[in-house]
Amino acid sequence: MRAKSTTEVQQFVERQPEGAPFSPTELLLYGTRASIDRALSRLTKDGVIERVARGIYVKPKRSRIVGKVLPSPVAVARTYARARGIPVTTPGAQVLADYGLSTQTPVTPVLSAGVSGKKTLKIGNRQVTLRHAPRYVLRQAGTPAGDALAALHHLSRHRPDEGHAVLAQLDVATFDRLLELRPTLPGWLADLITTHARGAVYPGSVRP
Q1: Residues 188, 192, 195: CA angle, nearest 5 degrees
Q2: Is 78 helix (H, G, I), strand (E, B) or coil?
Q3: Which of 81, 85, 118, 162 is buried most, with the most CB atoms less than 10 Å from its CB?
């Protein structure tokens, strides 16, 4: 099937927010991958869009102060993963920092992902690492419970005191969600959540 028209690809690009990366797979409604690639190549040559990584494009955001502003490497990596059906979520180390429980952040940005081992993506002169995360974390990606599980997985069974500190940060709804998830979690993690539930006070929440 040929592309419906270059105009339709242009219209798609015009609808994209400035600075938001996208993948050619999002345009396959308009034709074959080859025809879409040709249309995007023309738009790139015309300066309408810019390729920021292999198979990832963006309509650059313009600033009167600094000029062209490209998306962050993490945003590009998330788009790369989404285009390939790879689930990703915020890494546990970042969640701990967001909770105020750690000041350590990796030099190279990291995303927890459904990959074997780790994969490093080169984005311009920057790099982002996709690092393996277990399914029980990825199934809750993008939710407060998923963030909490990512942090607890990062701490592992050997740091229970810090695990309890993470659980103490959670609101009632998020902690109750972790209680519901216990049958799907590793034994050590389910036990940690149960132990915390027995000693914590969450008004209005049912506890074992």
Answers
A1: 135
A2: helix
A3: 81
H/E segment holding residue 129: strand 126-132
Per-residue pLDDT at 3 exceeds 50:
no
- CA distances for 152 relative to 3, 14, 105, angstroms: 47, 42, 16
State how far the Cα of 120 lies from the Cα of 49, in Å rounded to an integer. Answer: 24
Residue 114 in tokens: 């459904």
Mean pLDDT for the chain?
88
- The residue type of 137 is V
Residue type, 116: S
Nearest to 169 by CA among 149, 184, 189, 153: 149
Question: Is 41 in contact with 29 (CB distance < 8 Å)?
Answer: no
Bridge-based pairing state of the strands 126-132 and 118-123? antiparallel
User: How much is the pTM?
Assistant: 0.78
Residues sharing a CB contact under 8 Å with residue 136, sequence separation 6 or more, in sequence order:
149, 181, 184, 185, 186
Cα 53 to Cα 36, 122, 194: the distances in Å are 17, 7, 44
Using DSSP, state whether 126 is helix, strand or coil.
strand
